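ok so heres the complex, two chains, lmk if somethin looks off
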Amino acid sequence: MTGSASALLNSTMLGMQLVQRGLSMTSSNITSATVEGYSRQKVEVFLDGDSRDAVLRRSYDEFLSREVGELTSSASESSRHKTLTDQLQALVADPATSIGKSVDSFFAASNDLASQPHSIASRTAFLQEADNVAARIRTAADRMDFYAEQGFESLKDNVSKINELAKSIADINIKIRSNENTPGMDPPNMALDERERLVKELSGLVGTKSLTSKDGTFSVIIGKGQTLVQGPFANQLEISGDHQAPVIRVTPPARSAPGTLGPDITATMTGGAMGANLKFLQNDIPENLDVLDGLASGLSSGVNNVMTSGYDLQGARGKPLFEISVTSHPASSIKLALKDPAQVAAAASTDTDGKPAAGDNGAIASLLDLQDSRFIKISGNPDMTPAEAYSYMASRLANAASIASIDSASRDQLLADATGRLMQSSGVNLDEEAANLMLYQQTYKAVAQLIPAMNAIFDTLLQAVR
Amino acid sequence: MRIATGYTQMTNTRQIVDSQARLALTQQQISSGQRIIKPSDDASSFNKTVSIDHMVNMFDNYLKNIDQMTPNLALQESSFSSATDAMNRARELMLEASNGSMNAGDRKKIAAEMAQIRDQMIAIGNTRNADGTYLFAGSRIDQPPFVKNAGNNSFSYQGNSFIRALDVNPNRRVETNTPGNMAFGTADDPARAINALVAAVDNLENPVDDKKAMLDAIGMMDTALDSISVATTRIGALLNTLEAEKSVQTQFVTDIKAERSALADLDYPTAISELNLRQTVLQAAMQSAVKTQGLSLFNYL
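and the predicted structre for the whole thing:
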């Protein structure tokens, strides 16, 4: 190598520039140390003969990042599911106000009526307890409906956030495409980190997979294979239907005829908060409402059958005690059909005067038999007693909430572990940066010393020539 | 291994938040006295408490029934006992009267006592419960079962043969009343006991000494006494049943309540020591967070 003065100067300047890059990297790392999604940057130096070049590149592990994305999705799904099942189990949490207690109290009132069938006070208490059973069942059904409506609202919110994120990711793709891989330029680190953060946020909302194209842009696929973002293009989701039948579609292509519906992708939307909301609306709510409906219609028809076989105080054929609407859910419509205590059909037969004997409790005795009879039909189960049906409902809700809680805790832990691994590779360690800072300071001082040294050399040289 | 500064912070925060949540749960348990705050805290124990609560409610009914039936059956028993005494005394008097060596005055005395016994039997047959209903009327509990027939002194039974029964355990219903015709009558004459006394009094008040009518009346008393004796035995058996049921069920309810308490109630000593432990853990987590975050090379620059 032939040294030349200008080469010396060049390499000095280059050295100072490299050190400055290093300092800039360190300062960026320090100031962003706790910024979520920030990837530690490092200087990459290229040697090309005498010339050197340096770029700042993110320390980024695609595999770890993908793992965090997937776990974010499942942790968010189970955390949301935990919240939802937690709400539902409140329906059975308090033994004093439970449906089970009200059914027991109804049979207790029946028992009292059986020993005093002629007593208006006992008849009144009997009607009050029957009314209470109906009210408790209706309240539970209303509450389920309310939770479902809230779930649907949350789903709408998910969709609008997913749409915003899709646009943002597509926008960033455009920036990245124009900046990535320009020789001699830093990669668009901030944009890459930002896109990473957006994809992670999207993962919290719905199961998300991202694929990197050659031009550095991301394709984003959500749920079970629905493309949301492809390079600069973002699809949008639409939500329709209601809390009983939510429908999610992709917006149809721009050139479609007006009124064209995009394809229904509801079934493919798994993972994330949206997956949990959908599962809640499509499985948890209908399954539990089904149990409640079974209890409401079974109890209503079982009790009514007995009551209509008996006789009231005046000797008239018994009337049904409960009524349920045929057009809506039995559980949300069950109500008391009788108001007059004299019309309670406690007796099994009429006497010579056409009225039942005052002590005839035949019908109520048959009603009491129902307490231990398996006549409640809940689909997929053997027939149950009313208490068994309630117990089934309570344990279902408790078990679901318990499983969701355990699931959520374990997925949270998995996510925390994976995040830890990602941070180990991409996160900033301030002590490391402090050490680098010192190194660059020292190097800068050393390189800077070269300038007066060169100056002295030039001086000596010039004097020799003079 | 390099540790990112943000990771240390994240881990510290997580540990503190978790410790706080655990501490809050223990505090909640202590202030409520309940081990299970939400069903999902211990789903299998919660599920058992649901079944136990139902059992307790059911058995409360059974015990209530037993407590209500016992005095009622006891009232029947004492009525039968009085009826037996009365009928036996009437029989004695009749034997005395049929002795043949009676003068008109003696007859009159006996007739007076017999009339009292007759009225006593009518009163027993028409005994009322505490709530004013008739004890021996079958299901026609709102009207007196034994009434005098128009045109003569005889009585008839206007109750019916309805037998009420109440549950005393999930598999057993116990009869709780004795229809008057069953206790004081025969198949031919549902008011036999009263009518025997009516016949005897009529006979004694009749100046003509009718030996055959006397013997007939004694015969009627004997069959009536048989009925009362059968009814007495039945009530005794029912009362024994109730007594046995009550002691078995009281024990059962005590046992399942204890089981429920073991499942769902808080064990305070354990909970208090857990509270202390969790406070210590939280304190340690906070202190270690402060210490590790204070460590930095920048302090030495």
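quick notes: The CA atoms of residues 70 and 240 of chain B lie 10 Å apart. thats all i got rn
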